[in-house]
Structures are given as C-alpha cells and as structure tokens.
Amino acid sequence: MIKKEMIMMMVMMMGVHLVNAEINACAGFVKASSAVSEIVVKKIDYSAVKVRLVTKSGNTKEEGECTPNGDYFIPIYDKGSYFLEPIGPAGWAFEPKRRPVIIGDDFSCADDLNFEFTGFSLKGQVLTEGETEGPEGVSV
C-alpha cells in the first residue's frame, strides 16, 4: 500500500511540474504598413502567413503560423543565433525581410518581433486574344 501511495504522489508531483512548465518562445505580429492601411478597405487575413526561425546556414529550425489578425508564436528549444523570416503567399512583401535573433540562456526573445506587410507584387503581361503580343498603348 505504501508503494502505491508513493507512486501516486510521484505522478501527482510530475503533473504539477508539467502544468507549471513555461514555454519559451519568440512572438510578435504582422501588420499592414501605413501605406497599405490607407488603400486597403477590407481587413487583411494573415492566416496564410508563416514566420520561420532560420539558422545562419538557411535551415528552418521552427515555424509558426499567423492568426488571422497577424499574431504569431514560435517555440524555442535551442540557444543560438538565428533569423526570423515572414513567408507569405506568392507576391506578398514584408519589411524587414528577416530579423536577427539571439537566443540566450533564457531561451526566449527579448521583445515582440514585428513585421510589416508592405504590399503585393504582380508579374505577367497583357496579350491580345489569339496573338503573341499585347495591344499598343496599354499602360499597366
């Protein structure tokens, strides 16, 4: 009976320890730049944007998805020097393109690390139907 009680007590203590465990992380948000905010009427959904924790050699260490309002959270497991990079759908542009991050003994980032969505880039050409060239005098 004593052994059973000791085992139960140990399991309970481990459970309390797990509940009190902290998650070390980098967090921040992606928001529209002031220029984008002036021209976009509808609220931007950032859930297609990811933020990556990348090593100096370019390998992805961790990755977090943004919430629709732009918040992100990336768990940190290892000390070291990294970069945070926002990755959006094709054509989305962000500033800065990457942020240096140094993870020290506390395994977390000092402050929120935020990014601005600065706009879209489009690539293509205007063609006349059935032709290989576009019409003259069309400005895009």
Task: Flag low-confidence runs.
Answer: 15-20
What is the β-strand count? 8
Q: For the report, how would you describe the main beta sheet?
A: 4 strands, mixed
- Succession of helices and strands: HEHEEEEEEE
- Structural class of the helix and strand makeup? alpha+beta
Please give the alpha-carbon distance between the first and last residues: 83 Å
Q: Can you offer a commentary on this structure?
A:
- By secondary structure, the protein is of the alpha+beta class.
- Helix content is 18%, strand content 34%.
- It has 2 helices and 8 strands; from the N terminus they run αβαβββββββ.
- The chain has a 4-stranded mixed sheet with strand order 4-1-8-6.
- A hairpin with a 4-residue loop joins strand 2 and strand 3.
- The longest helix has 19 residues, at 2-20.
- It is elongated.
